[in-house]
Structure formats: structure tokens, C-alpha cells
Amino acid sequence: MRIALFGFGSLGRALLAAAAAMPDVTVATIVDHAPGLAGTAVEGPAGSLTVAPRLPPAAAPTVLFHATTSDPERATAEIVAALEAGYAVVSAAEWLFHPWLRFPRAAEAIDRAARAAGRAALGCGINPGFCFEALPILAARTLARVDRFDILRISNVSGVGPSDFAHLGFGLDEATFRARVADGAIEGHMGFPESVAALAECTGVAIDAIEDRLAALPARRPVTLAHRTVAEGEAVAITQVATGFRAGAAVITMTLEMHLDPEFYGRTPREAVRIEGSRTLALDIAPAAPPVPGAAAMMLHAARALGALPPGLASPLDLPAGGSGPTRRLSAGPAARDGSGSRFALAG
């Protein structure tokens, strides 16, 4: 699989590291127009690459990993340009996981460009992407009837870059945090309403309203990160709760705790899913998937399965549950049996 990286911040670097662990992945291009990055040399899995300031036309079938911005207008323009340049696209923009909820015009523009180019595009990451959608959807298949979801993710996000740090609302005092939430400058995790809608649509749980609420925890001790120090009294953790309602009752509750210093506050990264319906099911995963490396891995695996999709804008939930699907190459020889069972030699 030939790939290009568009945006070389923390996620772009994680994508490069993940690609190095996949022998069949070739990194062909790295693009970032930031003055401090454009023109610099980067050591890739197959040798040195120079960060380009602009995206060149795709010289061969290539999947572009878009990791520059979550702003809908700017992201849409960049993704459409990439499709017109011949790339298939996997974007980290959170709202693009299920853009039909709040951004139908952007979804239409990307879908039109993808169809015209004969390529597929989708938004994918770890959050949204895993414990709030894919995991509960798969688990819900074991219930004949689903009435309610309650999902929790506790995440250590101390490795996020300055851009995510700012748009999530870390490092602010309580009054500033509240004011910026009220005027829309801070949305926290931008794709949370999309996660609620996607889960409802995929599982048949009817909802008629969505709420998205944020609360900040002030630091009781300073926390030093790679790009700044969070002082006492500034937001060191953010809890975001997205709720899907039906007739005033909560039927989908998603809680995301984002921490810069989780252990100090008695919180351990984990992911938990509880489903109520024809029976009650509970799953607990520890530790939680790390935000940046986890997103990189999810994006790369989604890219492998793009070939199963027709041209156009898709959702990761359209992809086969088995990734790119079974290869059907393995075949078993005759069973060698003993008193404890059997062993098969495999070919393929």
C-alpha cells in the first residue's frame, strides 16, 4: 500500500511510525506547509524523505492520510483538492466520521469529488472510531433487542499537540473555559454528536435529541508537557458527556474523560461498554487505546479496506468487520491427532 502523509504534527509522526511496522506500506510523500517543517528531511521506512510544502499529483494509486485540521471548511477544501489530485483519502477530522448529521454540505462536496475521481474517502480515528461506535455495534449483535448504551473512555491525552490542546480547552481557568464553551470556541472532542448518531442509526435505537456537555477539572499541581506547563488552577482534565435522548429519557450516554495527569487524580485509562436490552452485557478494556498511536493504527487499517468500497464518501462503519476480509489462502493438511486433540500443518 502506497501512502502520503498530509500534516506532520503528532499524528503525522505516529502514522509514519506505524507505517514503519507494516512491511507492505510505502510512504511516498510527506506534506506540511509549516515554515519550520517544509523542506526538512525525515527518515522514513525506506529512506529519507523531504517534507514538501504542497501536495503533488498522485503518481500512482496512493492513500492520503489527512491530518492537518478538524475545521470543516478548511478540511473539506483540502480533502476535495487531494481527491482531485488522484488520491484516496483517510482523514482524521472527527466530524467526518459521520458528517451527514451536522455537515451535509461538506459531505456532499467530498462525495461528489470522490465519485468524480473514482476514489473513496472517509474519516477515521480512535475517537470516534472504536469504543463509542465499532465496539458497541459489534457487541450489540449478540442481543435480540437493544434498549440502552452506556459507554466510558478514560484517556491519557498528554501526548496531544498544541492544536488539539487548544481546541479541547486545556490550560484555561474555569471562567475562560466556560466562556469559550458558551461562544463555541471550544467544542472539546468535535465528533461526539456524530458518534451518538452513528451508534443510534446502526443499532436501531431511536433518538430525538442529542446533548453535548463539557466540564473542566482544575489542576492541583503543575503538569509539564512537551510544549507548555499547565499551572495549578488551569484545566488539566476535561470530561465530556454526549447523550442521546428519546422522549426525554437518556438511551445513549457516552462519557469521555481526557486527562493530562490521570493517575494523580485516581483515574486509570480504560474503555467500558454497557448494553441493556434483551440481556445486559458489559465489556471493560484496560488500558484504553492511546489517542495518537491508536488513531494512526485505526487509520492505516481502514486504508487497507478502502478497496472494498465504491467511489464516494464512506463511513468506517461501512467497512467489513474483518478489515479487508479473509484472504482464503490458508489451507489445512491432514489432522495429526493424539489424546489431547489435534494439530494441523498449514499451507498458504
TrEMBL record:
Residues 1-19 form the signal peptide. Residues 134-321 form the 2,4-diaminopentanoate dehydrogenase C-terminal domain. Its EC number is 1.17.1.8. Keywords: Oxidoreductase, Signal. One of its GO terms (molecular function) is 4-hydroxy-tetrahydrodipicolinate reductase. Residues 317-348 are annotated as: Disordered. The keyword Oxidoreductase applies. InterPro entries: DAP_DH_C, NAD(P)-bd_dom_sf. It holds the Pfam family DAP_DH_C. This is 4-hydroxy-tetrahydrodipicolinate reductase. It comes from Prosthecomicrobium pneumaticum.
